[in-house]
Design goal:
This protein is α/β, with parallel strands linked by helices. Helix content is 48%, strand content 18%. It has twelve helices and eleven strands. The strands form two sheets. The protein has a seven-stranded mixed β-sheet, sandwiched between helices. The chain has a four-stranded parallel β-sheet with strand order 2-1-3-4, with helices on both faces. The N and C termini lie far apart (69 Å). Monomer. Associates with the 50S ribosomal subunit. Pfam families: GTP-bdg_M, GTP-bdg_N, MMR_HSR1. Keywords: Coiled coil, Cytoplasm, GTP-binding, Magnesium, Metal-binding, Nucleotide-binding. It is found in: Cytoplasm.
């Protein structure tokens, strides 16, 4: 599918990196980027987001390059999307829809599929406001006029019923997860969750640590379903390690809400391994984005260890870095070739032991009172 990427520079953040990320998202969704069109604005145009002059430029590119799709690096309102489709006479997809599409392709487990469909339907619900008017004009209303109920009302009702059913399924899955977590809690098993920006190397690290053999690929959102494995650490015993879905800037709210059940593995962890792509030029921005989502799901209070991955691409050596108080703050490693993995194991054991000491001292303080 031949696509044009459209990005508007509002003067915030690294615009080039954001557009490059959109290109990777498009590739992950199965689209081939033929051209990128960028412009600068202080704020979005109410009707066409990019303004009529730039919309004409995109329209010419659509014809000249025989494009099938135009992808915007922003969330478009239903009216803007509809106006653009009328103007360009081609399908327009915004960043939110693109990410939802990738998630729909990648979801493997029953739970993952339910979560993605729920997010898609909730997004679609916002697009149904007068969504059929341009089709009525094109086709003369044939087949769109129902007896006593318009197509729009029918769609809204059916969509509402489906959303209700999916939410009930999600509640059931949530209860199952809660039961599993409680049984782990009763056995006092220390739990570690891998979090990080998409494509930072979480699944590769998970596989290297646990020999799990889960799917890992150099693409965005290779992992959607949380996988947990037991791991034995010398000096600490068995722990449970979970690999979770990657985060991305402007992650659609529908996805954060729908994937709350999956992300709850993160909320209930004893330690977060925040995996960072050490070779990325925008790694600090990515760290910020991950911390933003962690705050959104209520996991910002959990102890965090930064894992500086891909040191082989950044000409760095395996190492443990400590702060001014001697506490471990970062571990430098390469999940791909195994450099520094032993250092990470040692770091987890040390943090576990410190956690146990602080827990014991807190318990003693309670008894002293």
């Amino acid at each position: 599918m031949r696509a044009a990427l459209v990005g508007v520079d509002f003067g915030k953040g690294d615009f080039a990196a954001s557009l490059d990320e959109l290109s990777q998202l498009a590739l992950s969704a199965g689209a081939e980027t033929i051209t990128s069109i960028a412009c600068k604005r202080s704020s979005p145009d109410a009707a066409l987001f990019i303004g009529s002059g730039k919309a004409d430029e995109v329209a010419h590119a659509v014809i000249d390059l025989s494009l099938d799709l135009v992808i915007f690096n922003h969330a478009l309102s239903p009216a803007q999307q509809r106006n653009l489709e009328r103007h360009l006479k081609i399908r327009v997809v915004d960043r939110t829809s693109l990410i939802l599409d990738i998630f729909a392709q990648r979801a493997k487990s029953h739970e993952g599929k339910v979560q993605v469909e729920l997010a898609q339907l909730q997004h679609l619900a916002t697009r149904l406001v007068r969504g059929w008017t341009h089709l009525e004009r094109q086709k003369g209303g044939i087949g769109l006029r129902g007896p006593g109920e318009t197509q729009l009302e029918t769609d809204r009702r059916l969509l509402g019923e489906r959303v209700k059913m999916l939410k009930a399924k999600m509640e059931k899955l949530h209860k199952q997860r809660e039961t599993q977590r409680r049984s782990r809690g009763r056995s006092n098993t220390f739990t570690v969750s891998l979090v990080g920006y998409t494509n930072a190397g979480k699944s590769t690290l998970f596989n290297t640590l646990t020999k799990a053999g889960t799917y890992a690929a150099n693409q965005l959102f290779a992992t959607l379903d949380t996988t947990s494995r037991r791991l034995y650490l010398e000096g600490a015993g068995n722990i449970v390690v979970s690999d979770t879905v990657g985060f991305i800037r402007d992650l659609p709210h529908q996805l954060v809400a729908s994937f709350r059940a999956t992300l709850e593995e993160t909320i209930h962890a004893d330690l977060l391994l925040h995996v960072v792509d050490g070779g990325s030029a925008v790694r600090n921005d990515q760290i910020e984005q991950v911390n933003h989502v962690l705050k959104e799901i209520g996991a910002d209070h959990i102890p965090q260890l930064l894992v500086w991955n891909k040191i082989d691409q950044a000409d760095l050596l395996p190492a443990i870095e400590r702060d001014e108080y001697g506490k471990i703050s970062r571990v430098f490693l390469s999940a791909k070739n195994g450099q520094g993995i032993d250092l990470l194991r040692d770091a987890i054991v040390e943090l576990m032991q410190k956690e146990a000491v602080s827990f014991e001292s807190n318990t003693e303080a309670v008894f002293d009172e």
